[in-house]
Design goal:
434 Repressor (Amino-terminal Domain), about 0% strand, globular
Length: about 70
C-alpha cells in the first residue's frame, strides 16, 4: 500500500490521522509518515483498512467485534 492509497483509505473511512493512529495503536507521527511514504505501511494495517473499506466496517464496529470475541473466549 502506498502513502496515497493509505490516505485514500483513511478518506473512505472518514478518519483523520489522529483517529487512525488511535485506532491502529500508533502515534500520529507514524500515521502521517505512512501517508507521506516515509515509512513502510505494515501488511496487517493494509489488510485491515482494505477489509474495512470493502465491507463498510467502522473503527467502532471493529472494536466492538474484537471486544465481543474477547469476552466470549
Amino acid at each position: 500500500m502506498s502513502g496515497a492509497e493509505y490516505l485514500a483509505a483513511l478518506d473512505r473511512l472518514d478518519l483523520t490521522h489522529i483517529e487512525a493512529a488511535a485506532f491502529l495503536g500508533v502515534n500520529e507521527k507514524t500515521s502521517r509518515r505512512w501517508g507521506l511514504d516515509e515509512h513502510a505501511i505494515p501488511a496487517s494495517v493494509e489488510m485491515l483498512l482494505l477489509v474495512m473499506a470493502s465491507y463498510g466496517f467502522t473503527p467502532e464496529s471493529v472494536t466492538a467485534l474484537v471486544q465481543e470475541k474477547r469476552q466470549a473466549a
